[in-house]
Amino acid sequence: MVLALAVCHYTGLTVRRVKGYVPGPALLVGLAATGTVARGVETQPDVAEAADREQEADDVCGDGVGGQPDCGHENGRTPPHGVLEGADVVHTAGIADTSDTCFVPAAKWGQHLLGAMSKRLFVSVDLDGLADDVRAVQRRFDGVDGLRFTDPEQAHVTLKFLGETERVDDLVTELERAVAESGVDPFEARFGGLGVFPSLSYISVVWVGVREGHGDAELSALHEAVEDRTTAMGFDAEDRDFTPHATVARMDHAGGKERVQDIVENEDPDVGRLRVEEIRLTESVLSEDGPTYRTVGSLSL
Length: 301
What we know:
Layout: E1 2-9, E2 12-19, E3 27-31, E4 37-41, H1 44-54, E5 91-92, E6 94-95, E7 104-105, H2 106-115, E8 119-126, H3 131-139, E9 147-149, E10 156-165, H4 168-182, E11 187-198, E12 203-210, H5 216-232, E13 245-251, H6 257-266, E14 270-276, E15 278-285, E16 292-300
Helix pairs in contact: 4-5
């Protein structure tokens, strides 16, 4: 992705393109020579759409390229700067003000402006206690060109990605109902095996799965119940089959694709066992250093 870095001068505002992403309503505020303020505003749908593509709906084809399994790149190769190279959406990295420093990081402004209005949410089952096991799987891919590891401490199964919303209290209520309707009691999930999205010919995401007969049915039942409740609230329905998994890496480019293919096809690591006693409503806070996750609500099984 690309962003525009705004640098304030006393004679006006200059903009250049650099790689990256900054969340929130993107505002350009420049101090003109007359002391008046000039503004340029991106629409919230543009910002939200770009953010949705960057993450975790975290764990789908092309990190959210329209949510479609066909990512549309020739020969299964990821473009040099990621799946959204050439996108029209441009995000600002700073807001100029009238102080002597004349520059304020847009990440802080975006979070401040958005924080009171909405949160970027998803429903998860977190892999508590399995960070070392996830890290051990990631070491199998050490040195692979173009591969970027996720934070093992934040490993999770995404049951439903919701996006930006202000309806936190309503969601907690509906998720409580979803848990009850799922009929799922606390269970043990066994994580193991490797897979990729969307396919071995075009690798965007590398993940560890859930062993068949060892928690996959329960996770699928929870997903279906959450899907029913959240779509009834007006959230977008999923347009692909649910595959319970935890993302361990993403491919920024296809330099090491053949090695990833070899590992995924020929290795079958056991990751560990997890006692699942709750699902969580989780907030994803985007920053220049990547997403961090915060539990907004916990719903016991």
